[in-house]
Design a protein that fits this description.
Elements: E1 4-11, H1 17-30, H2 34-39, E2 40-47, E3 53-54, H3 56-65, E4 88-92, H4 102-110, H5 119-126, H6 128-137, E5 145-149, H7 150-153, H8 160-170, E6 175-179, E7 189-191, H9 194-207, E8 210-215, E9 220-228, E10 233-234, E11 238-242, H10 249-253, E12 258-261, H11 268-284, E13 289-298, E14 303-310, H12 320-328, H13 332-347
Parallel strand pairs: 1-2, 1-4
Antiparallel strand pairs: 2-3, 5-8, 6-7, 6-8, 9-10, 9-11, 9-13, 11-12, 13-14
The structure holds adenosine-5'-triphosphate (ATP) and magnesium ion (MG).
Length: about 350
């Protein structure tokens, strides 16, 4: 039987480069397991932090060692020769330049099927302002928010205070200030007074032209995994717990600082509501293949507010996405197989 050649694309020009390598190593192993080994031939492609593509031995070395490298390439825009052999791409790139539609556009131009969402769902899912507008249109409850631009933040000293007044009167304290297009909580601040708000807006604007400010909620953080194309399925939800003030960068990436509880211990009607809304969110963006949808469950009122969708969620052997599927009855290797099959199905004209 001829094996399908899967191009595993990882690394990338984002702050989540290292996580991408760990996710890709886990996925690479899944291609060597059981039936997958007879069906698929994995070809690794590593995108260095400077944008150079590496295939073959260098890419394999990064996968094996789990460490980034920076070798010299012939030409930045030249793909490794084996790229033309790929039957289906599996991009495992988190954050900007990977999860945001840029790589998806490139793969689309190559006219080869790929795992995950297309250009639109990827870019809308990445930009928190566009994402919230799409969710609002779909009728999904979410926190109150205001969209702000860098030019408003850097505007003259007469205008900026008015912007802060508006945030204070419409959202109040505490509130969260976030760059619209980042991930891993980079550039996010929780603020409690005017000086903190001013500093946080300034900081967020240094990361992105678009900034979002949200009213803070006191809530449990529940996530749900989605798998499929036009008739997606939702997994059992999982909960993230931590001691820190919020789920910030340090909490996310310091082992032992956050705990995953799968399945989440919430009442059955809340589970059903979360699953239903996760599917609605997925369909509202026309997402494909996979996504992790994150919610705030306000226990005191019973409200379930959508926080965000991640179209290429963390995919290490201990990440929430595969763990929630494992708890639902789909093993890691099986999940990888299903994602390839969904990509082939979606890739058909
Ligand atoms: N409106 C809010 N109310 C309460 N907590 C919030 C709010 N917004 C964000 N947080 C806290 O900050 C964390 C990070 O926020 P968010 O999920 O928007 O960022 P992110 O950088 O997109 O994360 P990811 O890596 O999941 O994409 C949340 O998990 C939560 O702990
Ligand atoms: Mg998040």
């Amino acid at each position: 039987m001829t094996k399908l050649k899967v191009g595993l694309l990882f690394g990338g020009c984002s702050g989540e480069h290292e996580v991408s390598i760990v996710s890709a190593s886990s996925i690479a192993k899944a291609f060597t397991i059981d039936a997958n080994a007879d069906k698929y031939n994995m070809l690794p492609f590593y995108i260095q932090k400077d944008g150079f593509w590496q295939g073959g031995d260098i890419a394999q070395q990064v996968l094996t060692s789990g460490k980034p490298i920076s070798a010299t390439g012939k030409s930045r825009w030249q793909f490794p020769a084996t790229a033309s052999e790929v039957d289906v791409w599996f991009p495992v790139l988190h954050g900007p330049n990977g999860e945001d539609g840029t790589v998806q556009g490139l793969l689309k131009l190559m006219q080869v099927p790929f795992v995950g969402s297309d250009v639109m769902a990827s870019s809308v899912g990445m930009d928190k302002i566009a994402m919230k507008a799409a969710f609002a249109q779909a009728g999904l409850p979410q926190v109150k928010y205001l969209a702000v631009t860098r030019s408003q933040i850097y505007s003259n000293p007469c205008v900026f205070p008015k912007l802060c007044d508006q945030i204070e009167s419409e959202l109040g304290y505490p509130c969260f200030v976030k760059p619209a297009n980042l991930g891993s909580s980079v550039g996010i601040s929780k603020v409690r007074n005017r000086p903190q708000l001013e500093a946080a807006l300034d900081s967020a604007a240094s990361y992105d032209r678009r900034v979002i400010v949200e009213a803070a909620v006191v809530a449990r953080e529940i996530e749900c995994a989605v798998l499929g194309n036009d008739q997606p399925q939702a997994s059992v939800p999982g909960e993230i717990t931590f001691e820190s003030d919020f789920y910030d960068y340090e909490t996310k990436y310091t082992p032992g600082q956050a705990q995953m509880i799968i399945p989440a211990k919430v009442p059955e009607p809340i589970v059903a509501l979360i699953q239903e809304r996760a599917l609605q969110a997925f369909l509202s963006l026309d997402a494909a293949g996979l996504a992790r949808v994150d919610f705030f469950y306000v226990e005191s009122t019973g409200e379930v507010l959508i926080n965000e969708i991640n179209t290429l969620p963390g995919f290490t052997s201990t990440s929430m996405y595969p763990e929630m599927w494992a708890a639902t009855g789909i093993s890691f290797a099986n999940l990888v197989d299903r994602l390839i099959q969904l990509a082939l199905e979606r890739g058909q004209p």
